[in-house]
Design goal:
The chain is an alpha+beta fold and 55 residues long. The chain contains 1 helix and 2 strands; from the N terminus they run ββα. Bound molecules: zinc ion.
């Protein structure tokens, strides 16, 4: 038996809200920074210079 409380939680870098581990992130959880695709898109649009790939 697993409780929901067992799942890891992170804080979204865009909206600042906590979000819980999801199955679709099982391989990339370490790299996940946003709670949703929407937040990721907004973060990119908002800042313009997302340091994903240092040139
Ligand atoms: Zn978010």
């Amino acid at each position: 038996m697993r409780r929901k409380g067992d799942l890891p939680v992170k804080t979204c870098a865009q909206c600042g809200r906590p979000f819980t581990w999801r199955k679709k992130w099982e391989r990339v959880w370490e790299a996940v920074r946003y709670c949703s695709d929407r937040c990721r898109a907004e973060a990119r649009r908002g800042r313009g210079q997302e340091p994903e790939r240092p040139a």
